[in-house]
Every structure is written in structure tokens, then in C-alpha cells.
Design brief:
It contains seven helices and five strands, in the order αβαβαβββαααα. It is of the alpha/beta class. A five-stranded mixed beta sheet has the order 2-1-3-5-4. A hairpin with a 4-residue loop joins strand 4 and strand 5.
């Protein structure tokens, strides 16, 4: 059992990330935390004291230390990557800690990592997976979740940005639940076929 999973079993857990514009990696990391503990408070701030007081910190803080529940990938000498070279973003770092518990098996968690998590991590870390050039922005999961951000033409405040973040987390949670259900179902079906 990971330290992150253990912390999420406590009452009144606060997980913190950066305020302002959000990306798919912090949205899906928040959704992953909410799948384990729906009541987890997600604090969005840039205030160092507030961030340091949080039980869990993701996508902010410049610290990667799973033992203290710090999951940032913005260090100058960051080198956490999968064997295929795709680096971990905050989503991948949180998923690596919680995926197996959420899916019920390492195999199902790996299927979700391949189908969903790696693409989000690649986009967030600036890794190109597809070399094809198209004249419009592709609607990847990262683009869809990013579209919840306020545009230049919108009147924005911290409240509207945080409300948009919560909307994106709700959508991301549904997407993640479906990915987990599909991967877990595949692994269960595979076990039935292997037994036959």
C-alpha cells in the first residue's frame, strides 16, 4: 500500500496544486485522488505556506517524494520516465501510486497507463507521440480538459477559474472511471479465457 493511499484514508485530507490555468495532468491527478477519497479537499494556491501545510502536493512545489506525498515534475533535473521514454507528469506520478488499488490489479492499472495516462503525461511534458502535422489543434483528452480554462475574452476571477477546474475534474473523473472499468473488465475476461 502506498503512502499516498494511506494518507487518503485519513479524515479531512487536503491536497494542493497550483492556482490559475490548469492542464489535464493536474485535473486528472485531482480526479484520481477523488476516486480514492471523494471528500478530499483540493486547494488551488501559489501561497507557499498553504502548499506546505497540505497533506498531498501535486504539480507544484518542485519536489518529488512519494514518501511525503509530494508529486511535482517541474524540477530542473527531473528524470522520472517510463522504460519507453515518456516522462511522468503529476497525473502519472499519482497514478503510479494509486492505479493498482483503483483498478484491482497491476495489469489493469498498466492498461489505463498505456491507454490514457501516458498520452496526458507526454503532452504535459512536451513529448511528441505523433509526428503528423495537422492545421488545427487535435482534440486530445489534454485539449478537452484544457478547454475548461477561461479564454482571453472571458471575465475571470479566482472563483470562476476554480469553478472551471472543478467542472474539469468532474469530467475527468468520469473518463477515468470508464477507463478503469474497461481495463479491469479486460483483465477479468482475460483470466476467464486463460482458465478455460
Amino acid at each position: 500500500m502506498s503512502q499516498l493511499y494511506t494518507i487518503l484514508q485519513r479524515p479531512n485530507v487536503v491536497a494542493a496544486t497550483h492556482s490559475g490555468t490548469f492542464h489535464a495532468d493536474d485535473v486528472l491527478a485531482a480526479a484520481t485522488l477523488r476516486l480514492v477519497k471523494p471528500s478530499v479537499t483540493i486547494l488551488r494556491s501559489r501561497d507557499t505556506d498553504q502548499l506546505n501545510a497540505a497533506d498531498i502536493l501535486f504539480d507544484v512545489g518542485r519536489i518529488l517524494n512519494p514518501a511525503t506525498c509530494r508529486f511535482d515534475h517541474h524540477q530542473l533535473e527531473y528524470n522520472e520516465a517510463r522504460p519507453n521514454g515518456i516522462p511522468y507528469s503529476s497525473f502519472g506520478l499519482v497514478w503510479r501510486e494509486l492505479g493498482e488499488q483503483l483498478c484491482g490489479s497491476a495489469a489493469a492499472a498498466n492498461r489505463v497507463d498505456i491507454a490514457l495516462v501516458q498520452g496526458v503525461d507526454a503532452v504535459d511534458c512536451g513529448v511528441t507521440i505523433c509526428k503528423e502535422v495537422v492545421p488545427v489543434k487535435l482534440m486530445s483528452i489534454s485539449a478537452v480538459l484544457g478547454s475548461f480554462n477561461q479564454g482571453w475574452q472571458d471575465l475571470t476571477s479566482a472563483e470562476t477559474i476554480n469553478a472551471a477546474f472543478e467542472q474539469a475534474v468532474s469530467v475527468a473523473k468520469l473518463i477515468l472511471e470508464n477507463a478503469i472499468r474497461e481495463a479491469s473488465g479486460f483483465e477479468k475476461a482475460k483470466a476467464v479465457v486463460e482458465q478455460s
